[in-house]
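Lecture 7, part B: from sequences to assemblies.

Below are the input chains for today's worked example.
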Amino acid sequence: MVTTRRNSPRASLAATGLFIGIAVALCGCKQGRQSSAPNQAQTLPPEGALNSLPLGALAGGARLGVPDNIANPLAGNDEAIAAGHQLFMEMNCAGCHGYDAKGGMGPNLTDKYWRYGGMPSSIYNSIYAGRPQGMPAWGKALPPQDIWRLVTFIQSLGGTVSATYYQVGLEGDHDISSVAPEVPHSLGDAYLPAGVAAVTGSGERLSAPTTSPSQSP
Amino acid sequence: MNCSVAARLAMALFLSQLYVPQAFAASDSTVPAASLAPLTALQSTSASTAPNDPAGEWHMQAHDYANTRYSTLDQINLSNVGRLRVAWTFSDGAMYGHEGAPLVVGSMMYVVAPFPDVAYALDLSKPGSPIKWSFAPDPSPIAIGKACCDAVIRGWAYAKGKLIYNLLDDHTVAVDVKTGKQIWRTKMGNVENGETMTMAPFVVGDKVFVGNSGGELGKIGWLAALDVDTGKELWRAYSAGSDQLVKIGPDFKPYYDWLKGKDLGISTWPADMWRTAGGAVWGWISYDPDLNLLYYGTSNPSPRVPVQRPGLNLWSSSMFARDPDTGAAKWAYSFTPHDQWDYDGVNENVLLDLTIGGRRRKVLVQFNRNAYAYTIDRETGEVLVAAPFAYQTWSSGFDMKSATAIVRPDKEPKPNIKTTDVCPPDIGGKDWQPSAFSPKTGLLYAGIFNICMDVTDHRQSYISGTPYDGMEMTRQAGPGKHWGEFMAWDPVNGRKVWAIEETFMTMSGALATAGDLVFYGTVDGWFRAVNDRTGKVLWSQKLGSGIIAAPMTYQGPDGRQYVAVYAGVGGGAMVSKAMPGFPPRGSTLYVFSLDGDSVSTGLEMPTTEGGSTSTQNDNSQTGR
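Predicted structure of the full complex, as structure tokens:
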């Protein structure tokens, strides 16, 4: 059973069902895909591997019951950082957030203050679904791997918080600088798509690649 | 002398500075008024006072159709301005940049806060000017992320018992000034596509004129006329596209040949790029009731990467003279055709009558962002004077025959290459902050900038609702290292008469009065009164935030003259926010009077009765 902050067992089951449904819908029943081996940690996973990611909560809408602690599967990947930087320019992110990402029409993405959350999943959701003060919804325009590339670039700027920060928030005020670097929550593996291993920024693999979309809750 | 005498002397000197009413000028470098003799000639310069509102009131942002921002009130004058003190203040609670000036009609004052655009009516006849009503229009917060330059409101208008203003999310709203209830609201555009509205509506008779913002997001610019009573849209003239869209017809007679031709709003752009042309109408409007012509300017072309849009890019960075009844264009002029630096053309056009070359002429004067001050015949569009008022490197001169500046090739931005020391920067030698005119001196007064930029262009794709921009810039002060300057300008000869250098930007509007004073504010929060002939600072007061609004003056129901200005930094002044000492945001209106007197003066205020204890005995404490 997956333990999350708020969900009932039934909701978790439903969420997992939804996840499977989405995974099936988006990438077909692709099982047993090739995983990225440790010595290939600096290359990107195959395109289809990142299709099936849980959808975030829409701004103001109901949460789908997915925990915020999912890690960025591309965190620290140099190729992803470079690709994300290029997307940042080409999709006009720089026009609102500044060429140095320090803000302008849109907020500063390099500081520690996040209107809508600074965890990788929050930033993913902000890009995917848009936000109330004029942030466009890119989910229809950008495939998930491109959104994760943007998240990776933003993480490389130093202002984001770890996927484990939600736990810190439960415990009260905490100095962000002492929060652990990006480490996927052990339960987060259940939410990684098939064939993708969780890795740290230095490429060290943290868990064995999964062979099916999820472990059962 | 010994130490204690020296110390006492130093203290005496210090204290003597405090009590002399020449106060805390940021700099002593006033340029002396080199020759006062020409002022006699200049004093034949005049301006219409239409629509001749009551002298003690302030019914429109620019005070009058000609945009003089001049008041005939002189109770506050050279002899007593040192006595100005705060009479009362009002915070509207919104922290975005405050750019507008209060309106005073009768004994009521009307202000509108920046986003979320709440309007307040303050009763000036009562102590403390309490709120009589407020109106919360609830605009969409999407607009915050589509406003290029802060979620500001640049002003509001009054007409026929209605307070009329634009919401950031593209609605124009009219509010009944007696009740604070909405009378009409008209949707003018779609904010999701990147269009916003920040400008102050301008009323002539039964029509209110409004325009859009969005030149940084690829929105094509427009000016529209609405019926004051119903809000119904009567006409809309675009800043690019076919002659039909631009409302160019048989009456259109531009002065210069390069502005003549069919559908120049299409042909001066690469294929179809006129649809994302920019040319937004976010600045000021003026009106000549004798010629029956409206005057206003258009913003930069879009994208802000010139190599993507070869051509003159008409009618961006230009100005129009239009018939207010039909919108038909009578003439147009482009200040910076194929604008490569975001210089725009939206700054105020002050309508003056003056003598040039022995001839009496009806002119307008615009301090353009491109650092040239233009004196233009407002009947024909002929440029009579074009002279730099601020430091500039983008041009090597001005060709009067074609009325175009001569561009320096080494200051033309190119993609992926940094072009350095481009002056003025995008925000110009002067931005939208409006100037004022004094008929007593014949001079114009304006806060201007001394700023340069390094710019690297990045090619842009157009994605609706996102910036269509591409200018990566750093900005720094120009020669002398001061960012701002407040100056007096001679529009006949095209020369600066005096100037006060300021460390911080001078982005407030100017106010001129018959008391021989001009008022302005700085981005670090100093509000100053100046001798309008000599440029000597006579009084200064530090306010709670930087000042980017226009000051105004009125006579209260108590017969006293007041001067009012908002202190709430934001808007374009944020380009200098890295300066040490840059102030935080503010939301407060400051109202000044002689000795701080107001309706409250002399009234008994609540007091405690003498002799009574203020607390009960504390019986919980033992042993006391």
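Note for the exam: Chain B is about 5% helix and 35% strand. Keep this in mind when comparing with the next example.
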